[in-house]
Structures are given as structure tokens and as C-alpha cells.
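quick q for whoever's on today - can somebody do inverse folding on this one?? i tried earlier but teh output was garbage lol. C-alpha cells:
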């Protein structure tokens, strides 16, 4: 039996119309799908309603995959694909399977030779890198750094040392309500000449991408980062 295709569907980075950040071809691919794997059904339905679907919303099959999903549940999530149905994988925002539990489903699909198709859409990481002015030839995404202060400081120092050694841009993110703590930690423990980019609310009305050395950041008022999605980048 022919298996279905797993479509990786990017989602806008905030409350904006899907057509503002997704190409028409992507929206056309989404509309006929009836099966989806999503982080949260409620927000996924809101996105699908805005994107438009050929099938009534209440008839769509939505299964959740998030940080609470047990590994053995992946078999259930793969069942529609094995039965020949195409499935859309959605993140809460941005590209699925990047700093996202959907990566586990993609890995299993690849193991079973199920076709995986990434669709075009917003990636906060690449948008931040593009606008940073830092090294776009050599870079690494580190995901979330440790929440505990001592571990976070250690991680920041290691990333700065690695950046200096390899001339490599280091990207990392934080839970929005801890953004200010992360910003303060970078300023306190980074070297004065290290460049720091703070990219906030990308693709949204309040978008801001600013790059300064740590010494320069210390001379200006801190940016408003409270509960705003932010990507941090450093280049030593």
C-alpha cells in the first residue's frame, strides 16, 4: 500500500493573516488536507480557519504532539500516513521540527520511508540571522539555554568561546518571560567586543532587529523584551 505524504507546514510567527507570510502554493497544499498533527488543537484550528480548508473544521482529524507526548504514541500519529492519508504537521509558530517536538515524528517517518515535504514559510532563526549582520556563512543554533543561572552563565561563556574560536555566529532562544534575564546575563558575562543581536517580534508590527557590541548595549536603555518572541545571536 502506498503511504501518504507528511507535509511540514510553517505557521505565522504571531497573530497575522497566513497569506502575509505563506506563499499561495503552500495555502493550496494545506486546503485539501484532512489529517493534521499539531502542538495544540485550539490554536491549530484558528490557523486552519484563517488559512482556509476544503473540509469543514469540525471534520478535520487533529492529533496533538507536544512535549508531553510519549514516544509510543508516535505509532498512532503515523497511522493515517501508513493508511495512505496525507498529513500536515504544524508547530505553534514558525517551522515545524525545528526546536519543536514534531522532529520526533519526522524522524520516524524517515525511518519508514514515508515522503516528507517541507513547505516554505517563516523561520525566525533565518530571518534573525539575515538581518543581524553577523556571520551567515558559519553559524549554529543552540536552542534553549539552561534556565538555572549558574548553568546559563556557563553555557554563555562556552558559546562565546566557541564563536571566537570558529568565527561562528551562535543563535539561541529563551522562553519569552525570561528574555530580560537572558539579555542581562549576556551583557554581564560577555566580552565587551562581542556583538549581540536581539531580534524581536519578527514579521510582526513591533519587529525590531538590533546589533551592537556588548559594550554599546550597556550604554543604551535595554530593549522591551517582556513576553515578546526573541532570538539572540552572538559573534565574538
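ok took a stab at it. sequence:
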Amino acid at each position: 500500500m502506498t503511504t501518504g505524504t507528511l507535509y511540514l507546514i510553517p505557521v505565522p510567527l504571531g497573530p497575522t493573516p497566513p497569506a502575509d507570510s505563506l506563499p499561495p502554493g503552500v495555502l493550496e497544499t494545506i486546503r485539501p488536507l484532512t489529517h493534521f498533527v499539531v502542538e495544540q488543537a485550539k490554536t491549530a484550528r484558528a490557523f486552519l480557519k484563517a488559512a482556509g480548508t476544503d473540509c469543514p473544521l469540525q471534520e478535520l482529524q487533529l492529533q496533538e504532539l507536544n512535549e508531553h507526548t510519549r514516544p509510543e504514541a508516535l505509532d498512532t500519529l503515523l497511522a493515517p500516513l501508513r493508511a495512505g492519508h496525507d498529513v500536515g504537521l504544524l508547530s505553534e509558530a514558525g517551522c515545524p521540527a525545528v526546536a519543536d517536538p514534531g522532529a520526533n515524528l519526522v524522524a520516524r517517518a524517515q525511518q519508514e520511508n514515508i515522503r516528507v515535504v517541507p513547505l516554505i514559510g517563516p523561520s525566525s532563526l533565518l530571518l534573525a540571522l539575515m538581518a543581524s549582520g553577523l556571520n551567515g556563512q558559519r553559524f549554529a543554533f543552540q536552542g534553549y539555554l539552561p534556565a538555572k543561572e549558574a548553568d546559563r552563565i556557563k553555557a554563555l561563556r562556552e558559546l562565546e568561546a566557541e564563536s571566537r574560536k570558529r568565527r561562528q555566529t551562535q543563535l539561541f532562544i529563551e522562553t519569552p518571560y525570561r528574555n530580560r534575564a537572558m539579555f542581562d546575563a549576556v551583557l554581564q558575562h560577555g566580552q565587551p567586543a562581542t556583538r549581540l543581536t536581539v531580534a524581536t517580534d519578527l514579521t510582526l508590527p513591533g519587529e525590531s532587529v538590533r546589533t551592537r557590541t556588548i559594550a554599546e548595549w550597556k550604554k543604551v536603555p535595554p530593549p522591551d523584551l517582556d513576553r515578546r518572541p526573541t532570538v539572540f545571536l552572538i559573534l565574538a
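fwiw Strands lie at 5-9, 35-38, 61-64, 87-90, 115-118, 139-144, 169-173, 195-200, 208-213, 230-235. also The mean pLDDT is 95. so keep that in mind when u check it
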